[in-house]
Amino acid sequence: MSQFFTEKNPIIDPVALLTDLFMARKLDELKVKAKAMVSDPKYRYVNFESKFNRSGYNLLNDNQMDAALFVFELITELYPTSANAWDSFAEVNWKMKKYDKAIEYYNKSIELDPDGPTGDNSRNMLKQVIEEKEKAN
């Protein structure tokens, strides 16, 4: 039986638990629990990727760049084949003026979704990053 979900101690809202760990800055523990929960079939109906992505964008929109960077990087660790995860990770790097990383991650997103909507978005954003990088140099 999973160490995170037992009949004696069920985790009814796993995202709230992970949020609490984030707020307490228990980031190593958060990573361990997130990885376990994402792969635990008991939580198969929790769309962790979407919820984490929304949280990352909330942080990004609140100009909490380091926190957003952490969340988006975690998503790429949990969902390494998700084009959307890499697109979002690229965006926070772009906003932090880490142009080379943004370019790398947008290219990764395009590679994972070459003909889909996320790949299209990444291509458009990639053009903007390159233009901004050239102006900055």
Q: How would you describe this structure to a colleague?
A:
With 137 residues, the protein is mainly alpha-helical. It is built from seven helices and no strands. Helix 5 runs parallel beside helix 7. The protein is globular, with a radius of gyration of 16 Å. The protein starts with 13 loop residues before the first helix and ends with a helix.
How much of the polypeptide forms β-strand, as a percent range?
Answer: under 5%
Number of helices: 7
CATH class (first level) name of the domain at 47-136: Mainly Alpha
Give me the secondary-structure category: mainly alpha
Distance between the termini: 55 Å
According to DSSP, the number of beta strands is 0
The CATH topology of the domain at 47-136 is Serine Threonine Protein Phosphatase 5, Tetratricopeptide repeat
N-to-C SSE string, H for helix and E for strand = HHHHHHH
Main beta sheet, described? none
Superfamily (CATH H level) name of the domain at 47-136: Tetratricopeptide repeat domain
Can you give the mean pLDDT?
Answer: 92
Shape: globular
In percent, how helical is the residue content?
over 70%
Residue windows where pLDDT falls under 50 for at least 5 positions = none
